[in-house]
Specification:
The chain has 580 residues and is an alpha/beta fold. It is built from 16 helices and 19 strands. It has helices at 23-36, 52-59, 66-85, 103-112, 134-145, 176-186, 197-209, 222-237, 253-265, 357-366, 393-402, 425-432, 456-464, 499-510, 533-539, 555-571, and strands at 63-65, 91-98, 120-126, 154-159, 164-169, 210-216, 245-251, 290-295, 317-322, 349-352, 372-375, 408-411, 446-453, 471-475, 482-483, 486-490, 520-524, 547-551, 576-579. The longest helix has 20 residues, at 66-85.
């Protein structure tokens, strides 16, 4: 193929649609749309706060890869493909190009061509400069101030060094007063932080448009580390950058302590009055609404996690991820440091890598207004062996039924009793519901416990006390696990046992005259009992059910599920049965 020939459309990177996405992407997409579909949430995670790689998945739109065409045929190829695709492309991607090369001017020319349908732009470039140079500053001006992108919502810039991702919202500031205020603030930044007019100009640009920041704390040398601390000090302690979302990757406790210490002591010598900067004052990040920490450790010999409501009183979302070492041991009471010291007045979303019975009472006390609660361990740590505290079915039931503002509840770690998994967690859940919850029930919409064993009897009892759940995830018990005290009977679906008629009666009484709103079920696991008529009877309790999906099944089970899907859809043509 010559340089002037056009490769087929299918060969273009990232050209995809939802039907062709792999199974893992489908699950990710399902979880994301599940979170966003609840319009009653007072807090909505911003769609632009997701990692760059998720942008193409969630929008499912054609993407034009500038770097691909640039390497294929230089700028003449870009111009040719622009004429063909400009009215269809919604995402423009420019990746892995050295900013100092001749490509710098070509990219500016490419952006100036005009992209009438593009809503998102992703720029990724390599540079040793801690701040943008003349090429990248020109790119920003074209994106924000030229008519080449009439529908542009935001654009993201991934600067390989010093490992920083910035997302700029085109309409962050709407008034001339806001823009003038941004200019006045930037004029106060000392020369230490603005060594050239170009960098000074770009700080002004950041102050006007910056919305989201992702910063990796991997460091090559001391100078680079200082640059990152300087940047984060401006982001957290002053209105200079004022991002709405901050994600810190590869983060260690020493990094957080160093950043906070730098802020408290004013180690950078910032002018305090003009920048509204008060060294030593705990309250930080007045503009910050979403803080995401990807931690390598949660405790060391000095302190636990120094993140508290006193420092971030305006935070609406806090996500803490943790990748524990195999030899990691966390002392009791120190796992989350200052997290439970003060009430969080604005917090609506919390995600933790683990949870325990001990934390439940603290959460109810200090975070009573949560709408989204997620327990998501690192992959491979769902069993919680690195975390000695127990998480029992009683705590699971308590949080699901007593946090009255909770709308989304997701637990992707196994329940544990004294560090051990019980043989039959379904019986534990069932027993925890022997005492009915309080009369005032939360409006829970999503209840996802994909690694918690629950038989259908337990599920029905749980949903009897959760009358608003629309989306449900759970795991079937091991079909060969014996029931306590009955060595001759397996757990199975438990719809033929003595409890089932009584649970069905209670459920019917609770929802007399109105259907349960359950719309979607995701089941982990499979066994032959699913083909019984009793399972069809179970599904019949939910007339609004639209989809039934199975996940984590072996290859040999897929044919059986296909047969089951045929039977269930024959009985209910409106029900979609699938494997994810």
């Amino acid at each position: 193929m010559s340089q002037t020939e056009t490769p087929p459309l299918a060969s273009m990177p990232h050209i995809s649609d939802a039907e062709n996405l792999p199974a893992t992407t489908n699950r990710q997409l399902l979880r994301h749309t599940s979170l966003m579909r609840d319009k009653s949430l007072s807090f909505h995670p911003p769609p632009t706060a997701v990692p760059t790689s998720d942008l193409f998945v969630e929008n499912c739109v054609p993407v034009f890869e500038v770097g691909y065409w640039m390497n294929y045929g230089n700028f003449s190829s870009i111009r040719q493909q622009h004429d063909q695709y400009k009215d269809h492309v919604q995402t423009l991607s420019i990746w892995n190009l050295p900013v100092e090369s001749a490509y710098g001017a070509d990219i500016a020319a490419c952006l100036s061509l005009g992209w009438p349908q593009v809503t998102h732009v992703s720029l990724e470039y390599s540079t040793w400069e801690p701040e943008p140079n003349r090429y990248s500053i020109a790119w920003h001006k074209i994106l924000c101030e030229s008519p080449a992108f009439p529908l542009l919502k935001d654009y993201r810039v991934w600067q390989m060094l010093p490992a920083r991702l910035e997302v700029f919202s085109i309409h962050k500031l709407h008034t001339e007063r806001d823009r003038n205020q941004a200019t006045d603030i930037i004029a106060q930044v000392p020369e230490l932080l603005a060594p050239t007019p170009a960098v000074q100009q770009f700080y002004e640009h950041r102050c006007r448009y910056l919305e989201h920041v992702v910063m990796s704390m991997d460091s090559v040398n001391r100078a680079e580390t200082f640059t990152k601390y300087k940047y984060l000090t401006l982001a957290l302690a002053t209105p200079v950058l004022a991002p709405r979302t901050l994600t810190i990757v590869n983060c260690r406790l020493k990094h957080i302590r160093a950043i906070l210490n730098c802020i408290d002591r004013n180690a950078l010598g910032l002018p305090t009055a003009p920048l509204h900067y008060q060294p030593g004052v705990l309250e930080l990040g007045r503009s910050l609404q979403h803080l995401h920490l990807k931690m390598a450790s949660l405790y060391d010999e000095l302190t636990g996690l120094p993140i508290s409501a006193a420092r971030f009183p305006h935070l609406a979302s806090l996500i803490i991820e943790h990748s524990p070492a195999l030899d990691n041991s966390l002392p009791d009471g120190e796992k989350f440091g200052q997290l439970w010291e003060t009430r969080w007045p604005a917090l609506k979303r919390l995600q933790l890598p683990f949870f325990s019975d001990l934390h439940a009472a603290l959460l109810v006390k200090f975070m009573p207004d949560l709408e989204i609660l997620s327990v998501v361990p690192a992959p491979g740590f769902e069993a919680g062996d690195e975390y000695p505290d127990s998480l029992t079915a009683a705590t699971l039931v308590k949080l699901a039924t007593q946090l009255h503002t909770l709308r989304h509840f997701e637990v992707r770690s196994m329940l544990r009793i004294k560090g051990k998994k019980p043989l039959n967690m379904a019986q534990q859940v069932y027993a925890a519901l022997k005492k009915p919850p309080v009369a005032a029930r939360p409006e829970l919409k999503l209840f996802a416990v994909p690694v918690v064993h629950m038989d259908f009897c337990s599920v029905v009892r749980m949903l009897t006390f959760l009358p608003s759940v629309e989306q449900l995830e759970f795991q079937l018990p091991d079909q060969f696990a014996p029931l306590p005290g009955d060595a001759g009977r397996s757990v199975a679906h438990n719809l033929e046992g003595p409890e089932w008629p009584e649970e069905k009666r209670r459920f019917a009484e609770a929802f007399a005259g109105k259907p349960h709103p359950l719309q979607s079920i995701i089941v982990t696991g499979y066994h032959a009992d699913l083909h019984s008529a009793a399972v069809t009877e179970f599904l019949g309790l939910f007339p609004d059910l639209e989809s039934l999906a199975f996940t984590a099944v072996s290859r040999e089970d897929q044919d059986n599920i296909d047969q089951l899907a045929g039977v269930l859809t024959a009985l209910n043509p409106d029900l979609s049965v699938s494997i994810v």
